[in-house]
Design brief:
single chain, 203 residues, alpha+beta, 3-stranded antiparallel sheet, two-stranded antiparallel ribbon, 25% helix
């Protein structure tokens, strides 16, 4: 696995399952009947703990009689993760972590998009989760000449019957951008869609 959460990657779900199972094993001592919903340390802190203090007391899983270490917990987590992974019919990342974009009125489901093939994860530059992520993507070239590129997951028309209701979505899914038409004056605008003029009347 190259470490990237590509939409078609089949190894990313296994990595996520192993991470979840490993955190549950390491921090099981913090969970009890009165404290079930705890916030685990970040994966980065957990990785640092495994690397720097593999024999820390927190590694001693309370569900086993022998003394555990980071190595034994990593192996246990991988075994349980593999068992879950083998039950997944389609292990592609985009199928395991389904991305959906819903209408602002949640009951209007026909106006949303579901099971989108999108890569990324919460801890990556494309911080995409199932219902949250980078909607407006923007790249600006900081030079004397103003140039920028952007895209967002929708369209420029709020009418579901319009071609422009969601026409930007395909490029957003694949991480592509449109060159934005920016200018310092109206004369610099290239290929305008329409021109609006005004007149002033004097009575």
């Amino acid at each position: 696995w190259d470490g990237f959460y590509h939409a078609d990657c089949q190894n990313s779900p296994l990595a996520e399952l192993r991470k979840e199972d490993l955190q549950a094993l390491i921090y099981d001592q913090l969970v009890d009947a009165d404290n079930k919903d705890i916030e685990y340390p970040s994966p980065w802190q957990t990785a640092r703990l495994i690397r720097d203090q593999p024999g820390h007391i927190i590694m001693d899983h309370k569900g086993t009689p022998e003394k555990d270490t980071a190595a034994s917990l990593v192996n246990q987590a991988l075994e349980t993760a593999l068992a879950k992974y083998n039950e997944i019919e389609d292990p592609r990342w985009s199928n395991y972590r389904k991305v959906r974009i819903t209408h602002i009125v949640s009951d209007l489901k026909p106006f949303g998009h579901y099971d989108l093939p999108v890569g990324g994860t919460a801890a990556a530059p494309n911080a995409q989760q199932d219902t949250k992520g980078p909607s407006w993507r923007f790249v600006d070239e900081l030079d004397d000449k103003l140039e920028a590129w952007g895209v967002y997951p929708g369209g420029q028309n709020g009418n579901p019957g319009s071609h422009y209701y969601d026409n930007l979505l395909p490029k957003w899914q694949t991480g592509e951008y449109y060159r934005l038409s920016l200018s310092h004056s109206p004369d610099e605008i290239e290929s305008p869609l329409f021109i609006m003029t005004t007149t002033t009347s004097h009575e």
